[in-house]
Amino acid sequence: MERVDTDAILDEVNTALSSGDWNRAVKLIEALRPPDQAEIFHDLPAPDQDELLPRLDLEDSADILEELEEDEAADIASRLDPGELASILDEMEPDEAADLLGDMNPSQAVEVLAAMEEPEEVRPLLIHADTSAGGLMTSAKITLHAELSAEKALEHLRVLAQSSDDVYYLFVVDADMHLVGVVSLRQLVIAPPSTPIRDIMDRDVISVEASADQEQAARLMSRYDLIALPVVDAENHLLGIITHDDLVEVLEEEATEDIYRLGGVPGEQAADAPLPLALRSRLPWLVLNLGTALISAVVLSLFEDTIARVAVLAAFFPMVAGVSGSAGTQTLTVTVRRLALGELLARESLQTLGREVLIGLCNGVTVGFIVSIIALLWKGTPTLGLVAGVAILLNMIAAAVAGVLVPVGMQSLKFDPALASPILVTTLTDTVGYFIYLGLATLAIVRLV
Amino acid sequence: MERVDTDAILDEVNTALSSGDWNRAVKLIEALRPPDQAEIFHDLPAPDQDELLPRLDLEDSADILEELEEDEAADIASRLDPGELASILDEMEPDEAADLLGDMNPSQAVEVLAAMEEPEEVRPLLIHADTSAGGLMTSAKITLHAELSAEKALEHLRVLAQSSDDVYYLFVVDADMHLVGVVSLRQLVIAPPSTPIRDIMDRDVISVEASADQEQAARLMSRYDLIALPVVDAENHLLGIITHDDLVEVLEEEATEDIYRLGGVPGEQAADAPLPLALRSRLPWLVLNLGTALISAVVLSLFEDTIARVAVLAAFFPMVAGVSGSAGTQTLTVTVRRLALGELLARESLQTLGREVLIGLCNGVTVGFIVSIIALLWKGTPTLGLVAGVAILLNMIAAAVAGVLVPVGMQSLKFDPALASPILVTTLTDTVGYFIYLGLATLAIVRLV
Predict the structure, then answer these.
(1) In terms of Cα–Cα distance, which of A123, A65, A73, A64 is closest to A98?
(2) What does pTM read for this prediction?
(3) Alpha-carbon distance B296 to B292, whole Å?
(4) In this complex, is the C-beta atom of B317 within 8 Å of any C-beta atom belonging to chain A?
(5) CATH superfamily of B6-126
(6) What does the pLDDT look like over B110-149, one tens digit per residue?
(7) Domain spanning A6-127: CATH superfamily
(8) Which CATH architecture has domain B143-259?
(9) Measured between CB atoms, does A317 come within 8 Å of chain B?
(10) What residues form DSSP beta bridges with B242?
């Protein structure tokens, strides 16, 4: 089946709402899957959202709050009656409920938590930082002891797993809740019924500490193809598990963060963040850009006399600075992505540098040659062609060096290479480009005027 | 546990190999998990790889070939004896085996396929395009019929699921292999033993057609939190399933593709692709950039007289063109990413445009004002400040418009918005910037000389 046509259903829901037919609106939404419910719900006006949510099944309300963007969910939740919200939270996955409470104002969150039926599943999750492994985990509802037989374990599971959660792996603990192994549901099912868990479990279980960064948890899960990752404290006590849907979310979040940072949009940027927030995430970057443009401006100012005498030089600025800037961005992009994916290890930096300089040299020779020909044919000045061509060749090599060394250096200084590297690399290609080009032109000025 | 220190183990393996101690090298590698085995293996010289692989367990060899980059795996595979390779392929996941065979030269692949014990699992997977849903799927080894009881289904599973594959969902088919439902292993385990599958299965099963793009399959899986997605033909016959590890791989691949395209590296770019291939993926983009720089060059040439008379104008080129280019890149980046994540729907384009123009206006006023002040303080020319400030303001608005309309337009024309948009947007901000700035300067020339 294909994705639902949410445009059409949104229209139907809006028609129902405008004629006050709440029942029809409820039916239309309840017939959908959670992500589609949330997409429709997101597009309704706030008053309609507030009227509609309490009329939905508790489970549907819980699904919608889980699927909405965090800020929006917190907004809607804080407008609900605390008792009502508590009942919805009881239906949510504990980690999602904890995230929602964490996004609300603290006094309201405390009130809601007190009204919940099962606050003890959510409370321990509230203490972990949002972007840590602990912040991603949900409570491990079912744990097994190593002495249990496969048959007893399955019985245990039948009693506990009546809710809608999917269970694929079961983690095995000792009497003190130390994590000692993992067994898959498949292994339990196919094992002879009397086999003790300790004989079928895998003792080599990959886990992550609660304080680790969420990206580290995601890298472990994706590297080792895990659909559940247990989270432990420093003494290896099992605290919870991270599930595959969190993995997918973190991977997309981290990719978005890298894409935004490389594109000059540092900081979070929700699609419909209020305008002041959007400005705050973009303006500082532009002002920083302005600062680096000022460095280029100073270089250009140094050569004002040369430019005044040979104004035709200006026509080649976009080629000398721009194309080398693009080459630097190419190298930087490849390097940053390989660092992020863990594909570029420290031991390979030198080899990468050599490789990129060689690529820069080849590209520089080609592009420099084309520009020389353009200058010769267009302006009829061989010296101009030579000056521009050589400037591009040298700048391309500088771009390749900067494109590797800047992000690798950032990474080894524990900064995110995606964050500051783009501006450093283009500043470098701009200033070096202008300096070499105008410097050479000044040296050859008698042949240019 | 943490990631293994592969640096240290690589050293140990190299020491063992240099003293001819194959047994020790084999032991060191076999003690690792597959991704770590592959990382070490990748760093060994080819002759050592060729000697070592046949000495490893078939299962370890299969794991390594599965985990290596596709090109490298195909290289190594094609150097193996066909009979030996066939035995390794029999141990691999059918989809991975099919991918590997697809990357080898056809005559060799046919020979190896003929030598396999179970070619029938792999053969049907070979016909699908590499980047289609069909190309991702693996064979669905276990299917259930709706009339079976839960107990019989579990027995069936015990007989079939002795291999190492993890099974989480079981897909239910009718007598003609039409996909009719899905049941999780958990549901089977907790259902009363005599319940027929038809009473516990979920009939609302999400599937994808084999010809669909892999990105569409990945979007379905991530949107609906699926860890297995059934692949069907046009008549809803079950052909295979896509598993969660493929989802993660596709998401990373698609993110990398977008990052590379936005960074001006279109086309695939393996980390250690041979140099000519790397050049082929980068040089055309630079030449294209050169072409667009030529447009800016023509604009600059038009105003050669103005530049010759007021050379100080050149100092502000990097601010007028560069900072607006950065603003355009910001808008473009946010728009492209939201399109890729399916967060920006057609019905929201106009609203997005208005929002971005407003952001452009605010940023333009701020940055334009700062530049005016810089011009006034540095060069002591109020007119220059006014000209540069107004040019930046107008160019920022142009950048915002281009940053939304170009990618949205590309998408609606069925092009990838990440591919050509960056160059279009910066070309636009460059030429519009120079034109407005130098045009205004020419109009105000008497107050500037």
Answers:
(1) A123
(2) 0.81
(3) 7
(4) yes
(5) MgtE N-terminal domain-like (1.25.60.10)
(6) 999 999 998 988 998 998 888 899 999 988 778 899 999 9
(7) MgtE N-terminal domain-like (1.25.60.10)
(8) Roll (3.10)
(9) yes
(10) B229
